[in-house]
Design a protein that fits this description.
- The protein is mainly alpha-helical and 388 residues long.
- It folds into 2 domains: 82 residues, no CATH class; 217 residues, no CATH class.
- The termini are far apart.
Amino acid sequence: MPAAQSKTVPLGTIIREWGRIGIIGFGGPPAHIALFRKLCVDNKSWLTSDEFEDGIAATNLLPGPASTQLAIYCAWRLRGRLGAVIGGFFFILPGLVIVLTLSALFLAKHPPIWVLGLAAGAGAAVPAVAISASAGLMPGSWQRMASHSAGKLRWMAYLLAGAASAAGIGAFLVLVLITCGLIEIAARTKGGPKPPRGLSSIFPTTLLPLAAGSITALCWVALKVGALSYGGGFVIIPMMQHDAVVTYHWMSGSQFLNAVALGQVTPGPVVQTVAAVGYAANGIWGGILAAAVAFSPSFIFVIAGASYFDRLRSDRRIQAFFIGAGAAVVGAIAGSAIPLALELTQLWQIAPLALAAIWLLVLHRGVVLALLAAAGIGMAAVLAGAPI
């Protein structure tokens, strides 16, 4: 992979264009990828189609929000490290501002009744969003596994292991993902399940003891979110839910559902949910700190490793690890729907959940509209006298 093409595109252009995509980038990674392809390949010809596809493939091998890493990578190709920092920052900033603004509204001590209705309705749809996200990842994961001997059986085992761990032991989900990856290395290579050299630098394989103190704990939770969200932002939801609700009591279960919904309806990755968690833990500065810590691994991975992406993609053991871990991730995202659904407290919330499931899983329509419609149903129900 060639080195970054520095001083090709003015930094002001990167600020404007990456910021624009950060504002209009509703719809998650597919929308972000399409917008960057249109900008960098189709309209401006800054990158060739092959270069852009290589960037997608490489960033999808890394833990962390893939579309954010793609934004950083594209800016790195155009203006080197400075461009990467600026491009990534202005891509993330709009969604972060919106999430923090909405967090101040939804997580207030005494929000208006209509706000509570919006939150309860949108939160009710979140389990359906998790199932939809998992279903969208299944075909690709199955295809990568099915071509290998006995791959189908291992795929189902990884899927079930991920689902069970997300549903029951969310705090230790990462250990299950790592184990599945190591098993796949053993199955595909003769060297046994020893991780390839350098793997631990891109996918941390140890869990530190729970940190004490609100700021230290918040930084630790945010670091796990940013460094372990392989395969889609939803994989970190079970871990983050356990930390935010059970371990540190920063927010209630229903408030966590609201935070996940905010991460979905705003532009940018679902990892932005961590900013809402940070706000619940320590106000506006907690939200900013959590976002800064959560996104820092993405900048480090891309800026430090972009010139080695070809080597990363060609290493059979690394590919095997992520194929096995990726199958477990798909199951974990589906399994996260169980603890999320258990946080629903009112019978009327079944209606927006069921309608969201039909919209997403049967009609295959967009997530943002599903959440907005569910929020509207919630507000109408509460204003009509439904309990909250």
